[in-house]
Amino acid sequence: MAEARFNLTRREVKGNKLVRKAKSRALGGKDDDELMGQMALNGTWFARLAIGEPPQAIDLDLNMLTSDFYVRHTTSHAGTRYDDLFSKSFAKSNQHPYRSCTLPTDVFHLPTIDKSIPLPFAYCRPLKGSQDTLQASGSMLGLAPSKNLRQIDTTFLLHQLLKERVIERPIFSLMLVSGNEGVLSIGGTGAQATEMVSKQTAEQLDRAGAQEKINAFTAENGKTLEGGTNSLDKANIPEEKIILHKRGGEAHGFKAKRADWKEGWTWSKVQGAEGWWQTLMQGVWVGGSRVLQNQAAVIDINTPFVLAPPLAVKTFYAAVAGSRPLDPPYSNFYIFPCMNPPSIEFEFQGTRFPAMQGGRGMEYASAIIPGGKFSLGRLKHGSGYCVGAIVETGMGLKEEKEGMTGGSKQGIGSAAASVGSLAGNGMRDVWVIGERFFRGVSGVFDVQEKRIGFRAY
Q1: Rounded CA gap, 426 and 355, in Å?
Q2: What is the pTM of this model?
Q3: How many CB atoms neighbour CB 57 within 10 A?
Q4: Mode of pairing for the β-strands spanning 430-433 and 138-142
Q5: Cis ω for the linkage preceding 329 (within 30 of 0)
Q6: Please, what is the average pLDDT of the chain?
Q7: pLDDT score for 304
Q8: pLDDT 10s digits, 140-181
Q9: Would you say 124 and 35 are in contact if contact means Cβ atoms under 8 Å apart?
């Protein structure tokens, strides 16, 4: 499932550069009236906002692989629904930026500012007979930095907010406080928020044993965010901050302060085919030794672990004492001794960042998740081995081979052959730096300058 999301685009030469675009159905993409990205999937990150008068609460799913911002209304009972019939401030439009979408205007009650603002947005109601009618309702915020990945003819949301002077810079930052909650900062970074969270979690972990900490923390903060009563409701969240949640997880609450800009970040330029947040990871370090260098890497917080090419995975785990691959059909996963997790660092622009290390956050206490942040859990109950969070992927290999030989599972060999290796997703030898890395490292994404900033917390 994690890999399938990367197979919905292809590369194309446009002018003097290589760009990513959504695949047509003939090349393995979605139907012509379907948009990339799925809403309300378990394990994905989302924020909450309200639209219309009176306000209608709706979940805003984050997607770093697309550039579209839209609201979808389906016949399904899944997800959260915005209905124009119940909004007094809804302004109809005859524009159709996409086959199943119109471009109305309504009032957005953003949690980042003190006032509500009217914004045009794509309002999509799937056509009868479309598979999308069975999908969840909700909204999608595409965060990819290229207009070439837009399927809907609308303005990028950050540029709309810039035009309305809601923000001063077209940037956003992500900080995952734990496996279940975090902060999305639009127009700013989460620098001081990371420092505050680091201090608070350290204090909590110092108080008592693992189970005692959980009980005390739960009693102190009351119900979860889903229940509506939590310290987050009363926290001093600054203007540009939006609280993130992960579906299927339990939130505990934290406080965030105003962010800095540019200070303390290590900046890395976006590289590769224009479209995704892809950059150069200069090194992978295990136990203080660099075992890999100059690895292309795509950033995506909705990938639950870290994906790496076959040769890179073998090289990496060769440096992890006691590790070995599982037997087929799970041989893309490796195990390691739970009592001896490796010390891992990813290097960007000469700075080494701790990757999946330590126990920051209460759910990483050794009594709860053996093996620490690098562990996906024990191999089986009572086992001394844990499954590693760096997982082998063969993305790009099969598609590239089919494109070069003129064959494919869709039976459109001539179409694939006409573009050669560009028919593939271009993910051969590319890492995907997923959610696990950002539990300890925050990232800021500069759309205008096409660069990514990293900062450990």
Answers
A1: 25
A2: 0.82
A3: 12
A4: unpaired
A5: yes
A6: 80
A7: 93
A8: 999 999 999 999 999 998 899 889 888 888 999 998 887 888
A9: yes
Beta strands in 83-217 (DSSP E): 101-102, 105-109, 117-120, 122-124, 138-142, 171-176, 181-186
Q: How far apart are CA 423 and CA 412, in angstroms?
A: 11
Cα 114 to Cα 110, 240, 358: the distances in Å are 8, 10, 38
Which helix (DSSP H) or strand (DSSP E) does residue 307 occupy? strand 306-308
Lowest mean per-residue pLDDT among 257-261, 393-397, 446-450, 451-455: 257-261
Closest by CA position to 145, among listed 300, 14, 1: 300
Instruction: Determine the Cα–Cα distance for residues 362 and 373; give it in Å rounded to an integer.
Output: 11
Rg of the chain over Cα atoms, rounded to whole angstroms, equals: 22
Q: Which two tokens stand for residue 17?
A: 């550069």
**Cβ contact 72:124 at 8 Å:** yes
- Could you say which DSSP state residue 361 is in? S
Neighbours of 420 (CB within 10 A): 12
Contact 443, 299 (CB under 8 A): yes
DSSP-based three-state secondary structure for 379: coil
Answer yes or no: are the C-beta atoms of 435 and 250 closer than 8 Å.
Answer: no
Tokens 């924020």: give the residue.
Answer: 47
Alpha helix stretches (DSSP H) within 374-442: 397-405, 413-419
Average of per-residue pLDDT across 104-133: 85
Q: Is 248 helix (H, G, I), strand (E, B) or coil?
A: coil
What tens digit of pLDDT does each residue of 400-428 get? 555 544 444 444 444 444 444 465 678 99
**Rounded CA separation 398/428 (Å):** 9
C-alpha dihedral sign at 105, 107, 109, 114: positive
Cis peptide before 118 (omega within 30 of 0): no
Q: 366 and 359 in contact (C-beta within 8 Å)? A: yes
HSE-CB for 87 with a 13 A CA cutoff: 22
Mean pLDDT of 183-190: 77
**What is the phi/psi pair of residue 378, to 5°?**
-65, 150
Residue identified by tokens 């839209």 is 70
Distance CA 377, CA 323 (A): 14
Residue pair 403/422 in contact (Cβ under 8 Å)? The answer is yes
Measure the CA–CA gap between 8 and 137, rounded to whole angstroms: 21
Higher pLDDT, 232 or 321: 321
